[in-house]
Fold this sequence. Notes:
globular, two-stranded parallel ribbon, 10 helices, single chain, two-stranded parallel sheet
Amino acid sequence: MAEGAGLAVGVVALASLFNSTVECFEFVQLGRSFGKDFRTSQLKLDNARLRLSRWGKSLGLDGNIQDAKSLANHLEGGEDIKQAESLLSQIIELFADAEGVSYKYRSRKDIDDTSLQTFNPQTDLEPAMAELHLKMRQISMDRQNRSSLRQMTKWALYEQKHFRRLIEDITELVNNLVDLFPAREEFQRRLCATEVSELGDIEGLSELKEIATAQDRFLADALTRHSERTGGSYNIVFSGDHNSGLQIAHNAGSISNAFNKGA
């Protein structure tokens, strides 16, 4: 009885920690210095958040954190819980370290320095990519448990080298979380199929698939299956004032092109 009660308490703590970890993504901004790489970088960040939320969902950590008895049924034992807590804590530490780097960068700049300007995904992404960002964000947020969101100040990553390291380290830690509970992997694959369905046939899926191939194999597989079912149809959008040149590619399905010549 005491062991079961201890496991329930551990699961409540794990669910709360999961909630806090997913929440960390909400406060990260990317600096204007990312330039043309902003779109891809934001998508990598969104995918990392989505993958972590999927892992928590597969363990039942997205429900009411006080319902410890129900959550405990998904987990194997106390040692696994402790290891999962350690991995989640390491992800939170990564964000804290990156925020510290951001603070040091800002402290060396004048307040009106243009290098401190940041992107806003909702206004600076192309409309279709902004929609993809919002959909992925909403799926992740819906998987957080019922704890209220903390009030925190947004902060920015200004240098791409620090962003790349953050994504690589988060990917490795989530890999470890996934490997820690192999019995939940099939459920995660099913969740990926649901995610792809919710995202719909929206511009950016091919780019998301490329990113997922490197950091989210379950989603990459789901996107591949979706592409095969739909005949490999993708929308290609060129934006900017001066679009010219030759695009060479092979496609097994249909391609629709939309050219945006700018305002």
